[in-house]
Design goal:
In the N-terminal section; belongs to the cytidine and deoxycytidylate deaminase family. In the C-terminal section; belongs to the HTP reductase family. The protein is an alpha/beta fold. Helices cover 26% and strands 27% of the residues.
């Protein structure tokens, strides 16, 4: 969401941010929030992303700024969308506005990282997430699973709740076949308040049973498969055919871009995560290191990235990596 603030005589007189899809943009909401519109002709409007100059779901924001004769416009970033891409700034300057671009550019780029990645790299913003034991495993051995059928939690309850918060903040979540079969996950936000993400499932041979949570049709679900026969497809599930002999991660990015998905959390398992790491298709990694020790099992992915930060969630160590 774009953010906007309007200032007059060093005082904030209006604020706004983008409404849900199809609603008013940040500049519109900020202008409408001003108690005395007559002072707009002496004000400065700040906006994190270039005002649009085209008719879409709403009229051009640049036109509204000009209508109210706001003389000063401060912009964080150029909008990379082909329908904008400098045209909003040109329109404002041509009408006599004083326009500054690139103020707090780094912070605005971080704020709009999902949007920018989608339009500049033609793929969603990709967050890798996993939990590993203190000895480097993300799952126990099959022998251990067989002897103790209940789930093996690596992280504590607070970390698990944080993951549900993250799910509510991103548009989609992706898992591989083994994770789906072994854990029968819901991939929802039941431990947090918010919208459930779109579920993406890799299932080459359509092994996941129809009674599993991921196949219940409660949330938009996309299955990436090699099976083209529609009689094997489940109603209310979207199926996308990909070539499993090619670069799988790149094909997945293309599918998600086609579905207008701006961000995705890759939750595993190890093979799925490693495929995105190997193809260098990731932006962030969020890695929990818990106290349990497995001794043997499925090793955690191998990754190199800039350590951005780390924190402790009770007994868990949470490490954030960036792919610069």
């Amino acid at each position: 969401m774009v953010g906007s603030v309007i200032v007059h005589n060093d005082k904030i007189i209006g604020e706004g941010y983008t409404s849900p899809y199809g609603g008013p943009h940040a500049e519109v909401n900020a202008i409408l929030s001003v108690a005395d519109p007559s002072v707009l002709a002496e004000a400065t409007i700040y906006v994190t992303l270039e005002p649009c100059s085209h008719f879409g779901k709403t009229p051009p924001c640049a036109d509204l700024i000009l209508k109210h004769k706001i003389p000063n416009v401060v912009i964080g970033l150029l909008d990379p969308h082909e329908k904008v891409a400098g045209k909003g700034i040109e329109k404002l300057k041509a009408a006599g506005c004083h326009v500054s671009v690139g103020v707090l550019k780094k912070e605005c780029k971080d704020h709009h990282k999902r949007f920018l990645t989608f339009y500049e790299k033609n793929r969603p913003y990709i967050i890798l997430k996993w939990a590993e034991t203190s000895d480097g495993y993300i799952a126990p051995s099959q022998e251990k699973r067989n002897s103790t059928p209940e789930p093996f939690w690596i992280t504590n309850a607070n970390s698990q709740q944080m993951v549900h918060q993250w799910r509510s903040e991103e548009q989609a979540i992706l898992v591989g076949t083994n994770t789906a079969l072994q854990d029968n996950p819901k991939l929802d936000v039941r431990h947090w308040k918010g919208k459930n993400p779109i579920r993406i499932v890799i299932d080459k041979a359509l092994k996941i049973p129809s009674h599993y949570h991921l196949m219940d049709g409660s949330v938009k679900t996309i299955v990436l498969t090699a099976v083209e026969e529609t009689n094997a497809h489940i109603k209310d599930i979207d199926y996308e055919i990909i070539d499993f002999s090619g670069n799988i991660a790149q094909q997945i990015c293309e599918v998600l871009h086609k579905h207008q998905i701006l961000s995705v959390i890759i939750e595993g398992g190890s093979q799925t995560l490693q495929s995105f790491i190997s193809e260098n298709l990731w932006d962030e990694a969020r890695i929990f290191i818990g106290k349990p020790v497995f001794g043997k099992g499925l090793k955690a992915p191998t990754i190199n990235g800039r350590r951005h930060s780390e924190q402790y969630i009770d007994t868990d160590n949470l490490i954030f990596l960036k792919n610069d």
